[in-house]
Amino acid sequence: MEKQQKEIKQVIILRKDIDMGTGKLVAQGSHASLMSFLHTEKLYPELAKKWISEGETKIVLKVNKPGEFEELKDRLKRSSLPFQVVKDAGQTQVPPGTETAIGIGPYYTDEINRITSKLKLL
């Protein structure tokens, strides 16, 4: 299948090993989504536009241990996937600089799944 015909999605990964309330989790996921979208839009403008036109499919996943989060970041750094890591400003529930979330894509679903398929839904 050609890349133009492949499914596109965005994946948000939230850390559940950090004590964050529901509102904080939603805010961090929102940061991850927007940051990753803007990053992808710079690298792959046509892909970002296609994702918007197709309904902006998003999946929210979780990691439960700091090691899982670090391993995921390492795998993403070695991949060609567009992603962004959210570092909190530390004004409310977590210390400044705490990495709370990762946004991946929008990008091709099959390529994202190679890295995220073992993670559980939030």
Your description of this structure?
The chain is α+β, with helices and mostly antiparallel strands and 122 residues long. The protein is built from four helices and five strands. The chain has a five-stranded mixed sheet. It is globular. The N and C termini lie far apart (30 Å).
Furnish the topology, listing elements before pairings.
Blueprint: E1 8-15, H1 22-43, H2 45-53, E2 58-63, H3 66-78, E3 83-87, E4 99-108, H4 109-116, E5 120-121
Parallel strand pairs: 1-2
Antiparallel strand pairs: 1-4, 2-5, 3-4
From the structure above, extract its key features:
single chain; 122 residues; alpha+beta; 5 strands; 43% helix; globular
Entry summary:
The protein is α+β, with helices and mostly antiparallel strands. It contains four helices and five strands.
Extended strand count? 5
**Biggest sheet strand line-up:** 3-4-1-2-5
What coarse outline follows from CA principal-axis ratios?
Answer: globular
Distance between the termini: 30 Å
> What structural class do the secondary elements suggest?
alpha+beta
Low-confidence stretches: none
* Gyration radius from CA atoms, angstroms: 14 Å
User: Secondary-structure element sequence?
Assistant: EHHEHEEHE
Query: How much β-strand is present in the residues?
Result: 25-35%
Report the major sheet: 5 strands, mixed
Helix content: 40-55%
